[in-house]
Amino acid sequence: PGAPLLGLHRHLPPPPPLPPPGAGPGPAPARQSPVLCRDREWEEENQRWVQEVSSAPSTRLDVVHLQEQLDLRLQQRQARETGICPVRRELYTQCFDELIRETTINCAERGLLLLRVRDEIQMTIAAYQTLYESSVAFGMRKALQAEQGKSDMEKRIAELEEEKRQLERQVSEQKAKCEAIEKRESERQQIEEKKHTEEVQFLKRTNQQLKVS
Questions:
Q1: I need a labelling partner for 167 at 20 to 30 A (CA). Which of 59, 103, 148, 176 fits?
Q2: Which DSSP symbol is given to 27?
Q3: Which residues form a coiled coil (predicted)?
Q4: What is residue 124's predicted lDDT score, i.e. its pLDDT?
Q5: β-strand partners of 50
Q6: What is the rounded distance in angstroms from the CA atom of residue 13 to the CA atom of residue 18?
């Protein structure tokens, strides 16, 4: 059968498929010693397959092959060399798990210590990821608030500019009224002065005529 794309863990060849649920018990498959990596399970043509992780000791050639496979997978899956890359992290995690598996076979205590180191690293990464996601969410909220504040400020500026234009129109109207009043008052004053001057001249002429007669 065609197994799914395997990671960097070394597995045994897949045994015959498991019997479907409810079928009679068959011969128990020979299991290897427990290791730190999970068995692989998949279904194909309505049959469930299980591929166990190998517990055989690894040779120097196996380690070289692991490195070659890691480089190949990084290239095939187009993992980024720098920055945050889920693909690169996944492949290096698989590689580290395989190294832990190989180490545990030779020395269980050293393998368990590496397992603790791996778990601590994963918890640290998860904490940083949570902090990063919280920071991104906080930044997005602040950006939205700033955008909303900018929109409100632009609206307020438009209202004030409209109010300014209305006040300028009122000032222009009041100036025009004031100029018209001043013009009318000036004309009225000129008429009054002319009338007063004519009356004075009339009285002077009348007085002069009375003196002559």
A1: 148
A2: P
A3: 143-201
A4: 94
A5: 41
A6: 14
